[in-house]
Amino acid sequence: MVLAVIKQRRSYRDFLAKEVEEEKVEQILKSAMFAPSANHLRLWEFIVVKDKKLRDLLAAAKRWSYFVNLAPIVIVVVSKKEATNRYWLEDSCIASAHIYLEAENQGLATCFVQIYGSKRDNGADAEKYVKKILNIPDNINVLCLMPIGYPKQKLAEHNDQEFEKGKIHYEYYK
Questions:
Q1: I need a labelling partner for 2 at 20 to 30 A (CA). Which of 34, 49, 123, 138 fits?
Q2: What radius of gyration do the chain's Cα atoms show?
């Protein structure tokens, strides 16, 4: 059944003005924390933002974050910086993928909004902007924003035509 959820998963940028139940948010966060982590360090953390003023400020983080305030909740995926763990980015991305899939499984929608390495419209660092808004210390990286809500309209699921056998290589790249 996991493939069914994966086929339904889409990136949504428009949400209903409907609150998300706490039980669903908890299930989403559990799924993120069940993600694999290099050396099982589990350095990722999650900031759940419900406050409308804060969501409005996050929507201004960069050009492609304009819609995050349309969702009733934004989960900000962050990770501690540690010299011994160079895999924070991969670990945080896997946790974010779990958020994507469990949101879909709960009948909700989301979209990965890259913050780490992104620029604001004025050329300033988007991560520094988000850190200032949410009082995130310097030793924490901000990977992304994930607005969570009920989709305004359901998008078509992925189909088998998207499965491209020509992109699969066996033994060697051919």
A1: 49
A2: 17
- Cα 112 to Cα 37, 132, 136, 147, 170: the distances in Å are 19, 20, 19, 8, 31
Domains assigned to the chain: 12-152 (3.40.109.10)
Note if the pTM is more than 0.90: yes
Supply 87's token pair.
């895999």
Residues 6+ apart with CB under 8 A from 90: 38
Give residue 60's Cα distance to chain centre: 17
Q: What is the pLDDT of residues 7-48, one digit of tens each?
A: 999 999 999 999 999 999 999 999 999 999 988 889 999 999
| Residue 81 in tokens | 């910086």
- Number of Cβ within a 10 Å radius of residue 91: 22
User: How many CA atoms does the CB half-sphere of 139 hold within 13 Å?
Assistant: 5
DSSP string, 83-96: TTBTTHHHHHHHHH
**CB neighbour burial string for 49-71, b if at least 16 within 10 angstroms, e if fewer:** beeeebbebbbbbbeebeebbbb
Angle CA 74–79–89, to nearest 5: 100
C-alpha separations of 53 from 68, 70, 97, 114 in Å: 12, 12, 27, 20
CA distance readout (Å), 107 to 24, 34, 49, 100, 102: 9, 20, 20, 11, 9
